[in-house]
Every structure is written in structure tokens, then in C-alpha cells.
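PROTEIN SPECIFICATION:
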Amino acid sequence: MRFPSPLKELVWQHHERIDGSGYPNGLKEHTICTEAKIVAVADVVEAINSFRPYRAAMGIDLALDEIRLHRGTAFDPEVVDACLEIFDAGIFSFSNRQDGSFQKL
């Protein structure tokens, strides 16, 4: 499929990590588009916090601890800080529903 940039790059790069440990191309720091860095953090937080058919939701605290732990290695520090600020300020919250839906506060 053809996608307009930066959507194509965002999708292609959202599993890249700023230390080069990601995939598919092992990109580092400034070679990863900003949008992909944002989606990478959001994807990890959502995945850890949400119910999956093979495991229960592990909770937002564990999800936020994970991005804190990998801040500056796997994840862009500015993106992590922005994500933490949003949750700390109560601007956004996941619901406890098993369907994975969320609510904006």
C-alpha cells in the first residue's frame, strides 16, 4: 500500500529504539522520525496496561515504570517525559474495561 509520509515512516519505524536495538533497521536517535518515537512509547504503555487474550493487564504503574527504565536508551527522553507528564497531570487515563477502550479525563 502507498502511504503519505510521515505515516509510512511512522509505521515502519515505531519499533526502532534510539540506542539502535530496535527493528527492522536498527536506526538510532535522530534517524528515527519524531512521530515514530511518540508511537513507540504509546505502544509500550498501551500494551503493558491492556488486557491481552494470553495475559491480564499489568497496569499503568508497571507500564510507566517500563518507559522510565528505558528512557534515554530505548525511548526518546523528551517523549517519555511528555508521556509521564500527561499521566501525572491526570490529562489521560486508561479505563479498566477488558475491551481495551480508554477515556480522556
Notes: The chain has one domain: 7-104. The radius of gyration is 14 Å.
